[in-house]
Amino acid sequence: MIWLLRSAGSLSENGDYQISWDSLDKSGETVPAGIYLYRLQAKNVFTTRKMLLIK
Fold first, then answer.
1. How much is the pLDDT for 1?
2. Residue 9 near residue 22, CB atoms below 8 Å
3. Which of 5, 11, 51, 55 lies most in the core, judged by the most C-beta atoms within 10 Å?
4. What does the pLDDT average to over 28-32?
5. How many whole angstroms separate alpha carbon 43 and alpha carbon 45?
6. Strand 34-42, strand 45-53: pairing
7. pLDDT at residue 10 tops 80
8. Cα–Cα distance measured from residue 46 to residue 51, given in angstroms and rounded to the nearest whole number
9. Distance between CA atoms of 37 and 52, rounded to whole angstroms?
10. What is the DSSP code (8-state) at residue 36?
11. How many CB atoms lie within 10 A of CB 31?
12. Angle at the Cα of 8 (from 21 to 44), degrees rounded to 5?
């Protein structure tokens, strides 16, 4: 099952970015500990990685 937790919005300027996730879903509810996939996009390049959330 895949859920969109939240979008970080769009960043339009070139450069390095750091995005923190407060472990809330798009409804503002706290998500449980577990393995989550996140996707990053830069122009036409997409990458998907795994993240482990430990509480």
1. 56
2. no
3. 5
4. 90
5. 6
6. antiparallel
7. no
8. 16
9. 9
10. E
11. 16
12. 125
What is the average pLDDT across 51-55?
Answer: 92
* Contact status, residue 25 vs residue 5, Cβ threshold 8 Å: yes
Name the residue with higher pLDDT: 24 or 13: 24
Q: Within 10 A of 8 (CB to CB), how many other CB atoms are there? A: 11
Q: Do you know the residue count of the chain?
A: 55
Task: Report which residue type is found at 28.
Answer: G
pLDDT at 54 over 80: yes
User: For residues 31 and 53, what is the distance between their CA atoms, to the nearest angstrom?
Assistant: 9
Q: Which residue has the tokens 């393995």?
A: 35
Close Cβ partners of 6 (under 8 Å, ≥ 6 residues apart):
21, 24, 25, 26
Q: Cα separation of 11 and 42, whole Å?
A: 9
